[in-house]
Amino acid sequence: MSDTELQTARGVARHEVPDLLRDDVRLLGGLLGTILREAGGQDLLDDVERLREMTIRAYGDGDDAALDEAATLVDGFALDRAEQVARAFTCYFHLANLAEEYHRVRVLRAREAETRTGPAVLEDTLPEAFAQLTEEVGREEALRRLGELEFRPVLTAHPTEARRRAVSGAIRRIHHLLAERDLRSPGGVSLVENERLLLAEIDTMWRTSPIRVSKPTVIDEVKTVMGVFEATLFDVFPDVYRRLDDWLLAEDAGRTAPVARPFVRLGSWIGGDRDGNPNVTAEVTRQAATLASEHALTALEGVAREVGRKLTLDQDGTPGSAGLTALWQRLRQLSEEVTQRASAASPREPHRAVLLAIAERIAATRTRDADLAYASAEELQADLRVVQESLVEAGAPRAAYGDLQRLVWQVETFGFHLAELEVRQHSQVHAAALEEIAEKGPHGDLSERTAEVLDTFRALGAVQRRFGERAARRYIVSFTQAPEHLAAVYQLAEAAFEDAAAAPVLDAIPLFETFADLENSVDILEAMLELPQVQARLAANGRRVEVMLGYSDSSKDVGPVSATLALHDAQSRIADWARRHDITLTLFHGRGGALGRGGGPANRAVLAQPPHSVDGRFKLTEQGEVILARYGDPTIAARHIEQVAAATLLASAPSTEKRNAETAAKWAGLATALDASSRARFHELVRAEGFPQWFAQVTPLEEVGLLPIGSRPARRGLSVSSLDDLRAIPWVFSWSQARINLAGWYGLGTALRDFGDLAQLQAARAEWPLFATLLDNVEMSLAKTDERIAGKYLALGSRDDLAQMVLDELRLTREMVLKISGNAWPLAGRRVLGRAVQLRSPYVDALSLLQVRALRGLRTGVDGSVTVDGDYAGRLQHLLLLTVNGVSAGLQNTG
């Protein structure tokens, strides 16, 4: 495709913006312009507008002269002005993103409002998946599979969320004000007031530094996730269950026992993941678990009180059952004061009185009042069931299965712990600890690190005793390369306790990350079964095994194409292993937000998995900025959960498994060819002499480590001379910032060209879900890549040969992917996503030019005519960090 045709296509895409979205963006952009003029004068607004016009012209018309003109303008800004312009564009991205998010909510609501025959009309919903599954296996079997469905999102605090919580708060408030214009249709004075409030919030956003003064602590990260729980998750999960139940039961919904059962189980690594993060200590783990429990119990208490107050059903018309009376007597024995208070507030309303007393017991559980507290969430569930059964027996099923059922679902979903806290530690840390304990004994003069390892197991024991076994049972071993690495978990747990009975119940979970580990995974798992501790766990847990797969390091190890194929092959072999041993397998996918870390739409990825690797269970990490993107808004969160759950249910449908098995076998030769060619090309680049140092020159790698966006260090300790020690997060983040996105596509172009048969490749894309998903993700990565901007970053390095390799592979990959897809430009076939990327790209270009300027000054010691001294270097670094923040907001996925 010629440059002229590409620019024409981009121009057409800009005209496809829906009117309502365009109006919102114009409104918010105009209000931002007002704030810029008020805060920095007309000159600031003029500079922003000049740069905006130049980058739009350069992007939309392919005008290289306009891009050079924009670069010259940026290079001529005083540093103060450069910082102001960077912040202006960052604010614009936040506003454009929230406008787009709100429009997505608007569209989802409108689509549902137009649906007359139920949610099955909408694509990618649980009802649609259930209907399809019923056609294939019958209703009884479909209901059984639905009853065993599991979706386990695990929230992690990897440092990819570059946005401050203060900024997020302003964005949330602006979102509500924007919605108010739709929902209330304000006019006259109301409209003026709405705009005044919008201006005030945008002004606050503009004046709030986008960069944190210091790195967040682990507990800060826990609190951020608690905010998401309170804002959406606590209510969204039961909303999803209710929608499914409404569809399954039709006119009986709400007056008979629900068919839908809770299938979402929230997990968290925040406060438990200590691999490479010295800030996660045993004490932090205890604090994280306690904080989560406080939020869960506070939320449950509030709902219990609300539901109780509404149960004003008179004794005469709705008498309490014998079971309810017995429960009331037990409550009286626990606390005469509580039951007297509940009875006084509920004269002749037995169900109300009991539920208000239950609410008091939940409060006592939170405050640790031993006389009144519940011993477990299961005990609370039993009491709620008594109230439900009494209401049904009295002829009030709607009261039993309405708000009260919602509370039951919330207790079943969150328990008293909110999220299952998972611990992760590196296998070599365990090995060193065992070696030291063998030499000195568990009570000897141990190193600080080994003492901390033992304290971690003691913390897990304390968490389980207080919040239940479910609260913290999974222990993930990074870089599992031998069965001994799993045995070490149980050996260390025994060493930490004098009394073995006091040790926590643990499931040691292997994490296979590198290409070699994925290749050896089944041999390691086979040997794992011989461990007596594993045999004991299998006997106790119904032969359930969890295996985690790392997307990040495998991609950095062999490149994105080979990693994708290796992960698929490993899943297939592990699934076969589990079936041979009658094991219920859960594969845990360590996917990131960025494409180079296994990101991309999760529901499409689920449907491309090998046969029997899902079987109704899907678990994945939700990282960094992805948490707010997927769960920050209730409507979007519900849609995401439904899409993934529907795909999880359908992944095991006979038709899906048959298609995936047959196409994988048919295209095995293609997979082998792509693996060999892409890996060779990837290694030719990353194993070139001096590549790590060059990589640090042409990307903001070092500066990313300085950005205070997470509690975890960017590297495990070695210098940039070793890529092996570099975490996959900054590897992907840095390429993304440089507008190259190399981690998401490098090597594919060569592999496709070497295969050569275009017709065969097109047929593979049409037939083979894994290949189609790979190409779609690469196309998305290419859409966020800009060759001209990338060239400016590559020019910062001293290796023209490596820069040329990158550019040649970029051009080849784009050419081959577009030939196979038949698209005129990347994402041409995905209207909404393509429009979003293309609309943002010119504005990202502006920030990228500012970032290149800062990097050039830091790399050369000269910024234009100014010699860079220590103070000036610090200011350039600050400008750089501002642009990193802004580019992250513009690209909408970082690391």
Report on the structure:
With 895 residues, the protein is mainly alpha-helical. It is built from 38 helices and 11 strands. The strands form 2 sheets. The chain has a 9-stranded parallel beta sheet. Helix 23 (560-580) packs across helix 28 (668-686) and helix 33 (758-767) crosses helix 34 (769-783). The longest helix is centred in the first third of the chain and has 43 residues, at 19-61. It starts with a helix and ends with a helix.
Proportion of helical residues: 55-70%
Structural class: mainly alpha
Shape: globular
Report the sheet-strand fraction: 5-15%
Number of helical segments with 4 or more residues: 38
Average predicted local confidence, pLDDT: 89
What profile does the largest beta sheet have?
Answer: 9 strands, parallel
Keywords:
single chain; 895 residues; mainly alpha; two-stranded antiparallel ribbon; 67% helix
Topology:
Elements: H1 3-14, H2 19-61, H3 64-76, H4 79-113, H5 126-137, H6 139-147, E1 150-156, H7 165-183, H8 189-207, H9 218-249, E2 267-268, H10 282-310, H11 322-334, H12 336-345, H13 350-367, H14 377-393, H15 397-400, H16 403-414, E3 420-421, E4 423-426, H17 427-440, H18 448-467, E5 474-478, H19 483-496, E6 507-512, H20 515-528, H21 532-541, E7 544-550, H22 552-558, H23 560-580, E8 584-590, H24 602-607, E9 617-623, H25 625-631, H26 634-650, H27 654-666, H28 668-686, H29 691-698, H30 701-706, H31 728-737, H32 748-755, H33 758-767, H34 769-783, H35 787-794, H36 800-821, H37 831-860, E10 862-863, E11 866-867, H38 870-891
Parallel strand pairs: 1-2, 1-9, 2-3, 4-5, 5-6, 6-7, 7-8, 8-9
Antiparallel strand pairs: 10-11
